[in-house]
């Protein structure tokens, strides 16, 4: 490809809505153009990268024994009603109607469709296990599309689904996919960590996410991990044992009573006023889950993890209640207390759940739905809560102890590039998707599903590999392997050496670009760095002595070598990734 013909318009500035490096650089270097919120055009350079990621994924999936197919992007409502997700999926599911008023949706994932395919075609145990996958665009009407390709509304995903006859068979396939994922991300030049995770809208029991660890804002997940053992989990799933005792051993309150606590709106103010540790306070928080208020109780020095709370209730959408919503709830129950003084006692028809930390509280302090007072020396039985259910609702903090080995946990941030789930019969049962076993008995498939964000993986590679000047693509997923830059296109010797090298690279299967533009060398080098060619061969004045400059983008290493050695170095490097 000649640089003069390459469809690439680099921008002088970063787009104003770009918050993270990959979005900034991919837009500025001419890889992507936004069409509308969360929807991007993949321009030729980007498409080359995406195809390379896809092909690595395809190769490893095929090697792992999976079979590729392609399902429609538009899906009928009926199958989603069968699985129960037409109701359960929430607003991320983009719903539409056709001209006959039939309801449809844009596929955010394809469990329903693949389960319907399986029940039509996989009727006997003899056909199982099977793993089917596709690579395709997905649409999710994300609340906050952001970070360019990292969280789009339309994005490319590889999704695979396995059908087995037993849990053991599913677990074997899960392991098989785990290995395939490890190979895929290694080949893409990405170091990943597999972490335990919540199963979210997909469902199922066991799941792991493959995270690219980063210390930037692009890492939307907090990952808790242990250096002493292999424990690692997304914050929505992480558990820990707590270091501090509930109190420091002192007896703070001899009897239960209501005491004045004027203007103590926060936990800090309350614990300072009463001169007690915050571990002795019961915190009561109001959330709105699927439009209904829910009260969550937790020991006051700890925070609620919203996904855990959502799962405990079995809801779809969660947020903290607004002041007017809290006021309305209080009024309905005949109270006028403001936040800071709210507690579980005396509510009618309110779902109240408690974190496990509440179990151990004794003679504690709690709001009693009257302003400027608290109930001290209280115990749970004093609060008359009918049917209090306990769950793990607590957000883990670094320094708390590893649930596996007891050493202090650490925290970092990660970009989720892939996800594997053991679904079990979550779809096969409600959809009556069954096979006949050896005794002729109908049984639901034991399923697994396995996703990789193709477009997110490409963007994550930019997050992991860049410097101030631009992208440093890993060779295996770079749009082109090398750029050959004659410093002066008017210099005949420079041009003829550059062209000869370019042709030889092409003839040996290297994806090369020749920068034939009549531009200043500074401009050419800047563009090469921004676009992120893994290698640059510069033909300048030193060609008089028979030398060219060979630059490795990843390391910044510059060496002076003979043109044929530069060509061979690139050919050899490319051979290694094939
Ligand atoms: P997230 O928690 O980031 O919203 P998810 O858990 O909903 O993702 P999955 O349903 O597991 O995502 O989808 C499989 C893969 O698809 C993810 O691991 C991720 O790489 C990719 N993916 C999911 N949502 C998006 C998105 N909005 N934009 C780009 N890629 C995405
Ligand atoms: Mg996920």
Can you give a write-up of this model?
Strands 3, 7, 8, 9, 10, 11, 12, 21 and 24 form a nine-stranded mixed beta sheet that branches. Strands 16-14-15-17-20 form a five-stranded mixed beta sheet. A five-stranded mixed beta sheet has the order 28-27-29-30-31, sandwiched between helices. The longest helix is centred in the first third of the chain and has 21 residues. The chain folds into three domains: 208 residues, 2-Layer Sandwich (BirA Bifunctional Protein, domain 2), CATH 3.30.930; 135 residues, YbaK/aminoacyl-tRNA synthetase-associated domain (YbaK protein, Alpha-Beta Complex); 98 residues, Rossmann fold (3-Layer(aba) Sandwich), CATH 3.40.50.800. Strand 29 and strand 30 form a beta hairpin. The chain has 578 residues and is of the alpha+beta class.
């Amino acid at each position: 490809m000649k640089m003069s013909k390459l469809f690439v318009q680099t921008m002088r500035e970063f787009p104003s809505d770009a918050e993270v490096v990959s979005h900034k650089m991919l837009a500025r270097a001419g890889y992507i153009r936004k069409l509308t919120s969360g929807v991007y055009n993949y321009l030729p350079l980007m498409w080359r990268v995406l195809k390379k990621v896809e092909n690595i994924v395809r190769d490893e999936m095929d090697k792992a024994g999976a079979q590729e197919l392609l399902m429609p992007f538009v899906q009928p409502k009926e199958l989603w009603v069968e699985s129960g997700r037409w109701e359960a999926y929430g607003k991320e599911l983009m719903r539409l109607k056709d001209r006959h008023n039939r309801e449809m949706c844009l596929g955010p994932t394809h469990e329903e469709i693949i389960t319907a395919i399986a029940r039509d075609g996989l009727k006997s145990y003899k056909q199982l296990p099977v793993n089917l996958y596709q690579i395709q665009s997905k649409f999710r009407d994300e609340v906050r599309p952001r970070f360019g390709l990292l969280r789009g509304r339309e994005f490319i995903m590889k999704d695979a689904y396995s059908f087995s006859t037993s849990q053991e068979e599913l677990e074997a396939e899960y392991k098989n996919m785990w290995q395939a994922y490890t190979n895929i991300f290694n080949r893409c030049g990405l170091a990943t960590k597999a972490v335990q995770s919540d199963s979210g809208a997909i469902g199922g029991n066991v799941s792991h996410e493959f995270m690219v660890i980063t210390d930037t804002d692009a890492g939307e997940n907090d990952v808790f991990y242990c250096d002493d053992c292999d424990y690692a989990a997304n914050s929505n799933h992480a558990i820990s044992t707590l270091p501090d005792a509930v109190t420091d051993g002192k007896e703070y309150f001899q009897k239960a009573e209501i005491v004045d606590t004027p203007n103590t709106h926060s936990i800090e103010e309350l614990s300072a006023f009463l001169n007690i540790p915050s571990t002795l306070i019961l915190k009561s928080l109001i959330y709105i889950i699927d439009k209904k208020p829910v009260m969550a109780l937790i020991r006051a020095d700890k925070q609620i993890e919203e996904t855990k709370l959502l799962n405990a209730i079995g809801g779809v959408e969660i947020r903290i209640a607004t002041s007017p919503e809290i006021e309305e709830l209080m009024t309905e129950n005949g109270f006028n207390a403001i936040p800071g003084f709210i507690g579980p006692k005396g509510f009618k028809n309110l779902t109240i759940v408690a974190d496990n930390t509440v179990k151990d509280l004794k003679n504690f302090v709690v709001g009693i739905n009257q302003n400027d007072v608290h109930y001290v020396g209280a115990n749970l039985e004093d609060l008359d809560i009918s049917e209090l259910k306990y769950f793990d609702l607590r957000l883990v903090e670094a320094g708390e102890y590893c649930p596996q080995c007891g050493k202090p946990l650490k925290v970092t941030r990660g970009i989720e590039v892939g996800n594997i789930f053991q679904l079990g019969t979550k779809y096969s049962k409600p959809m009556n998707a069954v096979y006949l076993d050896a005794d002729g008995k109908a049984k639901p498939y034991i399923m697994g599903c396995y996703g990789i964000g193709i477009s997110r993986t490409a963007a994550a590679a930019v997050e992991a590999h860049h410097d101030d000047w631009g992208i440093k693509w890993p060779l295996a997923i770079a749009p082109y392997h090398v750029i050959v830059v004659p410093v002066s296109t008017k210099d005949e010797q420079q041009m003829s050496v550059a062209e000869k090298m370019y042709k030889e690279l092409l003839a040996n299967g290297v994806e090369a670009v020749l920068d034939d533009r009549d531009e200043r060398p500074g401009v050419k080098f800047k563009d090469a760095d921004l676009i992120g060619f893994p290698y640059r061969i510069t033909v300048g004045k030193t060609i008089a002595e028979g030398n060219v400059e060979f630059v490795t983008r990843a390391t910044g290493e510059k060496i002076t070598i003979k043109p044929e050695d530069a060509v061979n170095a690139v050919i050899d490097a490319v051979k290694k990734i094939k």
